[in-house]
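pipeline stage [seq->struct] | target=Peptidase metallopeptidase domain-containing protein | organism=Pseudooceanicola lipolyticus | residues=863
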Amino acid sequence: MCGLCGLGDAGAVVGGASGNGHAAIWPGNAATLLAHQGLTIADGAALFGGAATGLGSGPAAAAPAGDAGALAGADPTGFTALFDIPSGTGTPVSLGSGQRMTAEISVPGDTDWFRMSLTQGQQYEISLKALPFFGLADPQIYLFDNNGTFLVADDNSGTGLNSVLTVTATRTGIYYAGATGFGGGGQTTGQYEISLSPINAAADTVGATTSTAGSVAVGSQVLGTIDFGTDEDWYAVTVQKGQTYAVFLDAYLGTFTPLANPFLEVADRNLTTVALNDDNGVTLNSALTFTADYNGKYYIKAKGGPGNTGDFQLTVANFSPPAPASPLKGIDWGAGTEFNKTNITYYFAKQGETFANETTDSPWNAYQMQQAAAALAEFSRFSPLTFTEVSTAASADFVLTKNFADTSTTGRMFPQDPAFGTNQGVGWFNTDPDVWSLAAGGFLEKGAFGYSNFMHEFGHGLSLAHPHDNGGGTSAVFAGVTKSSDVGDDQLNQEVFTIMSYNKGWQTGFNGSSGTNAYGMARTPMAFDIALIQEKYGTNTNHNGVNNTYTLWTANGTGTGYEAIWDTGGKDTIVNPGSAGATIDLRQATLKQEPGGGGFVSAVLGVHGGYTIANGVRIENATGGSGNDTLIGNGLKNVLNGGAGKDIMLGGKGNDRYILSEATDVVSEKAKGGTDTVVTSAFSLKLKDYQQVENAKLTGSGNLDASGSKKDNVLVGNKGQNSLNGGNGDDTLKGGGGNDALNGGRGKDVLKGGGGSDSLKGGGGDDRIEGGGGNDTLTGGGNLDDFIFKKNFGADTITDFAKGTDELHLSKKLWSGDLGVKQVVNKFADVVGGEVVFDFGGHRITLDGVGSVNKLSDDLVLF
């Protein structure tokens, strides 16, 4: 803030000025300032008709006669009249506190003078702004006392080249403001608005602190006023974490004083700015969006540009960003350019025949026709399209020509676009030996340039366009693509995602470009192509409907390339059969403008070939090789088998199984990502080492152990001797064929022994314990425990059976006939050696510490 400190002292410097170079000299060099107007310091009093009185004491100057009186009844807003204010005549116009006026500098060198009555101690803002049309270029404003003594000036402290002064009067009296234009060393002309505004911060009902802020609700709007140039109005808004909000600050046009240049800022609870905007890109109004990081209050700061005051409208609303345009739009030649049928005929032009100005210069041989037909048939895998060769061009939908051309263009084909007239369906292929072959093993093999080129041109014939241009004028362009070599936003403009791209193979992948035309390119139409062809022609719902294995390429060479899997059923697996590490990703293409929109690539390190998975395809399993693999699941019940090597396995939302070969294998599972299991035959398992994984299973015959975590776990033993420890959750422990030790821990556990002689300890919770085969030792621990005995158990001992608390659950298959609990006790229970023993024909239950069958029937449950 600047003020008129020492008002009345000639040449007093009361504030800085900003803007172009000459502005800075004004406060310190009044003589130079006046020289711009053709005046001197001595001329100052003459400007005001000599009507000067002492400013330190005594009465204020009388109002000069002239135009000031004539304008006394004018519209105080200044919007209904445009005044031409006299210059240097002793007839300044009165500008009242709170008044705005529009006027004009009509001739170069003109200065308009305004007489103002200011009150000691009051802060004021004097603003000089060009009008939108025929505006005064580079407005300047300066201030004199009523003796003609220069006080302060400004150039460019307002918005753009506009000027504004913020001053505090140190005495009550008359002051004079001069308005002029200056630019490039000369004077300018034009229309302007001048205003005198008292700054009454104490009367501002909406303050600029958290305690004085107003409030605005989401989905509503408020009206407010920026009362002076440095005023800020803060509004608290209560928001929800993760929600995005749109905030608009507009000039309110329902009054004569709309805020000319709204400025908008949003701060969090720590008053850290999270978003701001000045001009929304269309008007001077402001707009922004922000996403809340927490539940609670954010603060919206409404203000004007430098020197701007006036009325505004603030609006807050929930905001959902529009979804980006689908990449499918970027390869669509347009509606009406596809066939209205699904059986497409094709014809190989004979030597010497000319179509679309292309003459076939040599016959198509059998191998070349075979490969062209195979490339057409690729479209039949995922759609109802069929392709039939015919013997005449007149009966063909596609006419295929070829010849050698010394050009970088390798092919061309015209879609069913009426703009191409008789050329519709005509395809041409360059037989340059760098991209073409006469026999098998060359560039027309799957994965090589020529085969990929066939599919690319046939894509055009079926109404697909390039992702880097707009085809027939109706398709879009991939986001971020300005030329064919741009991979674009999210790197989607690559052949591994669409055969319509010029960027062959997977150039941004971990193997880069193959660097050869012989392999490393598309072997099939890719995920974007499949989706758009299906949109235009329909879907083949019968292809690969059984259990299929998709084996990765392990070496570069003829046939190596990229395929998009189209599979309609069965339990399917992608396999790395080799020793080099691979990434196997089971996620399908999303078809959105995002990473993975065109699919996620599965490939072996160093090999230029692999798979993506088309949208809508479900591949369940991934199997690594003997190298260090990365396996990525999807939302299904995946089996991720890393194989040998140090593998990384990332699960999805389904109930996944991770098969581990080494203790160094890494498993990463999402929270709430299903109920998952780690499986191994190679080492003991501790579930605390596998966060978000609930279950463990030991396989093989090794003597291995497994322990649970704080979660509810399922631990399963193998044929060896296992120690299974549940931990704190409500666990289920299942022994295998060996003599196992099962310890439930603190929760409500279920323990089931296997075929060996097992030791089962329930722990502190209400446990359910079943010995299984073999001669087992069962211990319930504290609380209420159930001991389960089915047919063919061995000779088991319960070490801590508590009558009246624990229960014996006995299968009725242990005897014949219909017996009740008392009959079972009477018939099968006896006291042997001071302990109760149930004997079911060799299948015995000994209750250690229980010396009487009295009331034992109360603890029996028959099932």
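stage status: PASS
auto-comment: The chain has seven helices and 58 strands. The first strand starts at residue 93 and ends at 94.
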